Structure formats: structure tokens, C-alpha cells
Amino acid sequence: QVQLVESGGGLVQAGGSLRVSCAASGTIFSINAMGWYRQAPGKQRDLVATLTSGGSTNYADSAKGRFTISRDNAKNTVNLNLQMNSLKPEDTAVYYCYVKAYGIDYWGKGTLVTVSS
User: For 37, which of 8, 10, 27, 43 is 20 to 30 Å away at the CA?
Assistant: First the structure.
């Protein structure tokens, strides 16, 4: 079992920056991949960025050059971060942390990011 808790969402003006984080605890040694997805109102949930246990990253075209995914390890916890720069109103969405461990998908409850124009 993996537990995920997101933090760091909020309101920011267009052009600004925001960092969202996700603390993963539980059987973190079994994590194969981690990532961030987002869901805007009335739209499907889309990939933003992923990070494998081997360190490979993958970004949606909309995130390339503006967003950076990273992780840092603490005692009994893995923190997954998403640094978002040059934010646009169309980045407004609920951002969800995602983890795959032992073939099972885990999702956080989401954190709202609102970008005002």
C-alpha cells in the first residue's frame, strides 16, 4: 500500500510559478513510476509528467520547457515535486499525484492550481 498526500496548490497570476509536491509513504520501495496528471473542469484527466525509478522523465507537450518533475527521498517517504514556471490560465486544473507500485495504480486526492489572467 502506498499513501499519497499532495500539497502546494493555490492561486497564481499568469506568468508566475508554483510548486506542487506529493509525499508518498508506505511500501515506497515497490514504486516503479511516479507522475503528475491534471484534470481541468469538464475535461478528462491528462498526463503532465512522469518519472521512472530509473530517473527517466516524460512530459506532455504542454509542459515541456516550463515544468520540471523531480523527487527527493526522506526517511520512509518519497517526495515527488512538480515545479511549474511561466504558468498560463489553461494550466488551471486539479493536479493529481500518481504512483505505480507492484502493478497497482495509486492516486492522490488532488490539489487545485488556479492561474488567473
Answer: 27
